[in-house]
Amino acid sequence: MGDTFGDYLRTIGRVPLLTAQEEIHLGLIVKEWKETDGPSRSLEKRGKRAMNRIVTANLRLVVTVCLKYKRRLSQYGHDPMDLVQAGNLGLLRASEKYDPSRGYKFSTYAYWWIRQSINRHLQEHSGNMRIPPTLTNLAQKVHMAQSVSEDGTTLEELAGALGESSKRILHALTVNYRGNTVSLDQQLSSSDGSMTLLDTVSDGIGPEIEEDYTWMHDQMEILSAPEFDVIRLRYGEEKQRSYADVAKLMGRSKDQVQRLERYALIKLRKKIMPMLNPELTTWSEQAKAPKNV
Predict the structure, then answer these.
(1) CB–CB of 240/248 below 8 Å?
(2) SS3 196
């Protein structure tokens, strides 16, 4: 996390926390201000001052909640300060709705508002396209309804159960499906941070596995039939056969199989090595060439 986030933490760390009595007192002032129709200027001023005190004293709570999303921050490349600001909006909403007379602490009440605001922010900004939360929530309801259904449900049945039109449900599913994009710059969780999803995508230029040894198979035409059979039986399958097994399959002795394999490998090396190391071949030819006196 950058220096901006660090400076923000140091700034909010200087704000003193509220005692239980201060929390109740300030909460009652805000409640009176919000519930009064046409509040006086004095009450409005006191209410705003009390709400500001509640919010600033609980900014560290927002950071604590945001740190729970640290993995998703790195995954989607979000700026931590954007997530903090989204959480602060939830904190503001909680300070407006808080009722101290219910007996629970403000932090317990505000936690869920902060979390809701952060989740909505991630929901709207996790893809390359911004999808309205109403469509995302509708698509989630459809998936939940389909998961609990044993026999499957039709589009008309889903529309009736959810109180939506078939056209809107189909639109929500289509938008969420097309908006489910992933950035190629996304870091892989199993890596040290230097490997991204783009590194795993092939450009289509490199040879495929089936093509790697095709050229080598063509070079085996120089072998005699017994030599070819030995190489095929010894190395043609994933599990290499022993000399005894190959000898039994070919009706030959073990020594004969070993001799055929040795001759076959010598032939293949002479044919393939110049192809793999053309520079060595050139140097060898130059060394053998007669020098002018």
Answers:
(1) no
(2) strand
